[in-house]
Each structure stands twice: as structure tokens, then as C-alpha cells.
Write a structure and sequence with these properties.
This protein is an alpha+beta fold. It is 20% helix and 34% strand.
């Protein structure tokens, strides 16, 4: 039984993965460009752990049974801990199963990525995202896009790998009431939209009462030296009148942030 599971001093959970798994996509396409930049991802979806081999499936089933949990209660098994009465130390005996699991990331119910947590804190965030008490919710995935999963990994599920840097879960009631079209969160525009939707409650200025019926969500890049910026324009309809609001999202680096807050949209002259 694995009782310590304290790997904070290790370089990373998946240090031993072969180079094809951790190979990162390169954004440069011009001749002579060096592939020293990575393709960031900011996606919205749900996590689905699974085990690629029968022995791990049996291990998990035995753990769930011993804890009197449902056979699909991944959160209950992965997060289970107890405190030793003699030493006072806490142990997570089944954390090794979470380390061995494959983590599929589904967008609009379509498996889109395989998520590889780099360190213990990312693995803990993946586990927390499974907590059923927080439902209904969605998880934002922030990471770096890598190559396709090689043959023989994760039931030969040939999906792009995302090296996970951060996962955060949010209640759907705190997210923007926007019906998103399928997007993989890899382009600047999609990362900006996903950031707005996920952080809507925090971005919405206090006292701003938006109409309820959203007609459209459009985007356009705008300029600032050395930065990648996307203006998102939300058009609403109320009592026969269209009203538009916009906000600016900086997506230059891996973690998007608000460049200017949501406000009345005033089109610029061409």
C-alpha cells in the first residue's frame, strides 16, 4: 500500500515520460525560427480519469469497495486520507492510483486532450475538479500543448497532450450565460473567449446590469506594442434595441488577464 505519496521534492510526476509525450508544439513557422516558444492552452471542459490497464482497474475497484464508495467515485478514492493515531501524520493511501490514471479532458462532451500533471499540486487540482459537491461546474485547463499521445499510452487514445500548469473549477452559475461553440482553447481568440466566460462573475463590473438576451459574441484583435490583445464584443437585445459591450483580454502569455474592463462598446472608425 502506498502510504507516503509525498513527492514534493521530486522534479515532477511525469519526469520519466518519453520525449514524444512531453514534446511541445511550436508556434513559429518561418524559416530559421527556433522552437523555444510553446503553444498555450486555455480550455473549458470536464475531466475524465480512466485506467489504461486491467490491473489498475481492479486496484481501483478494490479501493472503492473497501471505502464503501460507488465504483465510479474517483474523487472519493483519490482524495481519501486518514490520520495515524500514533504519529499524527496524515496519509493518502490511494493517491498512487491518481498518479497512474490517464486524464482525458472533454470539451462539449468530446474527448479533446490528454492532461499530464507536471507536479503534485497540479494532480491535486485535477482531483479537486472531480468533487461532486461542487456540481454543476466546469474546469478551466491552463497548460502547454504537446504532441499526440504515443501508441500504447492510455488505451491508444491518440489525443494531443496538454502539459498541465493549472486547473481551476468554477460553478456554472458564476460563468457567463453564453452558449459556446466547440473550441479547443488554443487560438488567441478562443483563449480570450474562454477566459471571459470562466471569469465572468469577477469581470462583470458592479452595478452593470446587462440585458438578458445575448445576440452575438464577436472578437477582434487590437494593437499595443509587443502584446497580443483581443477585444470581445457582446451584443444584447432588449425591448427592440441592440446594446453592445466590450472588454479587452491580454493573451500574450500563458495566463490571460483583463486589459480593459467590460464597458459600452463604441466602434472605431475604419
Amino acid at each position: 500500500m502506498n502510504t507516503t505519496n509525498d513527492i514534493s521534492e521530486q522534479v515532477g510526476l511525469h519526469e520519466g515520460l518519453d520525449s514524444e509525450v512531453i514534446q511541445r508544439a511550436c508556434r513559429c513557422t518561418t524559416a530559421g525560427c527556433t522552437c523555444d516558444s510553446t503553444q498555450p492552452v486555455y480550455a473549458l471542459g470536464e475531466l475524465r480519469p480512466f485506467f489504461p490497464s486491467l490491473d489498475l482497474q481492479k486496484e481501483f475497484a478494490a479501493a472503492a469497495s473497501s471505502l464503501n464508495l460507488k465504483p465510479d467515485d474517483y474523487y472519493g478514492v483519490f482524495s481519501y486520507s486518514y490520520t495515524d493515531s500514533s504519529s499524527g501524520l496524515s496519509f493518502r493511501p490511494y493517491l498512487y492510483l491518481a498518479e497512474k490514471a490517464c486524464w482525458a479532458y472533454s470539451i462539449n462532451n468530446v474527448d479533446t486532450y490528454l492532461v499530464v500533471p507536471r507536479f503534485q499540486n497540479e494532480l491535486d487540482a485535477l482531483i479537486d475538479a472531480l468533487n461532486p459537491s461542487n456540481s454543476p461546474q466546469q474546469s478551466s485547463l491552463i497548460g502547454e500543448l504537446g504532441g499526440l499521445a504515443p501508441d500504447g499510452k492510455c488505451d491508444d487514445l491518440r489525443l494531443p497532450i496538454v502539459i498541465c500548469n493549472h486547473v481551476e473549477s468554477n460553478s456554472t452559475k458564476d460563468m457567463a450565460p453564453i452558449a459556446l461553440q466547440l473550441n479547443d482553447g488554443a487560438s488567441n481568440e478562443h483563449r480570450a473567449i474562454n477566459f471571459l466566460v470562466f471569469n465572468y462573475a469577477a469581470i462583470l463590473p458592479k452595478g452593470l446590469d446587462l440585458p438578458k438576451e445575448l445576440l452575438s459574441l464577436t472578437y477582434q484583435p487590437y494593437q499595443q506594442t509587443g502584446r497580443s490583445l483581443v477585444e470581445l464584443v457582446l451584443t444584447y437585445y432588449e425591448q427592440g434595441v441592440e446594446e453592445s459591450y466590450s472588454c479587452g483580454i491580454d493573451v500574450t502569455d500563458q495566463y490571460p488577464f483583463v486589459d480593459f474592463p467590460l464597458r459600452r462598446y463604441v466602434p472605431t472608425n475604419p
